[in-house]
User: Which sequence fits this backbone?
């Protein structure tokens, strides 16, 4: 970020603190938001954004260099708050182009619906023809690898970070953070509001039931459900579809 933008934001924060503490935000809110918008406009014009300070004190220091993709991440979030983001035929290709720019890998014909959130993007890989539905959270502080023809249903959360609980000399919130990658195999369905906790691997063609919390690896062809998720079934094919044709899978969807 250009140093002047950075100090401008700091000045704005100090001003905001004064406005709130003196209970004088009423009457100044419009002016304050105009000024905040001017900083955002300059970020849009220059494409330069600050590396966000990590509010979690135990975390490693932020990278010294600005992340060039942060601008695109910010753009994605802002785009999803515009009416244009509701026009699927337009919005889905826009998000595909952003994902190809930001993610480690984004295959072809991946569908992202609105308000998908992610931490960095650079640790995410998504295979061809997968669908990430609305309000999905991909915490990619460690790697998130999603295979091909995967459906991640609305509201699902994939987490890749953990906090140690066993250092009693510090609060848990300040005891650091570790990363454990999550993998989802090809052809899986991650149900509505399901949570995949850090480190789990979901096998090939698995189904995670709605509202489940997956804390252990799930073997191929397994259906799991509940909190914590347990095996509730399995679907085994007579033949293996590991190299499915797009036609077969589109019908399944
Ligand atoms: C997981 C799911 C696919 C299972 O469907 P199913 O194979 O027809 O299974 P059944 O309904 O016969 O249920 C089998 C058992 O699992 C339990 N179960 C089903 N779904 C469950 C869930 N989400 N969480 C916990 N338990 C669940 C049932 O209560 C039943 O238990 P019981 O044998 O003790 O009675 C389905 O329940 C589900 O969650 N669907 C949501 C899928 C989704 O979110 N799709 C998004 C598409 S984008």
Assistant:
């Amino acid at each position: 970020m250009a140093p002047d933008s950075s100090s401008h934001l700091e000045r704005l924060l100090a001003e905001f603190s004064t406005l709130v503490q003196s209970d004088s935000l009423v009457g100044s809110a419009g002016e304050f938001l105009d000024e905040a918008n001017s900083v955002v406009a300059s970020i849009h014009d220059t494409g330069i954004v600050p590396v966000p300070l990590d509010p979690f004190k135990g975390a490693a220091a932020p990278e010294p260099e600005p992340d060039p993709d942060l601008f695109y991440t910010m753009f994605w979030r802002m785009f999803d708050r515009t009416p244009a983001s509701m026009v699927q035929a337009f919005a889905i290709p826009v998000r595909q182009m952003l994902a190809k720019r930001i993610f480690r890998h984004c295959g072809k014909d991946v569908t992202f619906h609105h308000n998908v959130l992610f931490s960095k993007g650079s640790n995410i890989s998504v295979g061809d023809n997968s669908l990430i539905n609305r309000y999905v959270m991909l915490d990619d502080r460690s790697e998130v690898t999603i295979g091909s023809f995967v459906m991640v249903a609305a509201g699902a959360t994939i987490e890749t970070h953990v906090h140690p609980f066993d250092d009693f000399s510090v609060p848990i919130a300040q005891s650091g953070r570790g990363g454990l990658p999550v993998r989802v195999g090809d052809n899986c369905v991650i149900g509505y509001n399901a949570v995949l906790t850090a480190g789990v691997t979901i096998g090939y063609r698995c189904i995670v039931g709605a509202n489940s919390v997956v804390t252990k690896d799930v073997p191929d062809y397994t259906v799991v459900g509940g909190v914590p998720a347990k095996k509730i079934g399995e679907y085994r094919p007579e033949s293996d579809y590991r190299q499915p044709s797009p036609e077969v899978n589109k019908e399944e969807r």
Remarks:
- The pocket of coenzyme A is lined by residues 151, 153, 189, 191-192, 207, 209-212, 223, 225-226, 232-233 (CB under 6 Å).
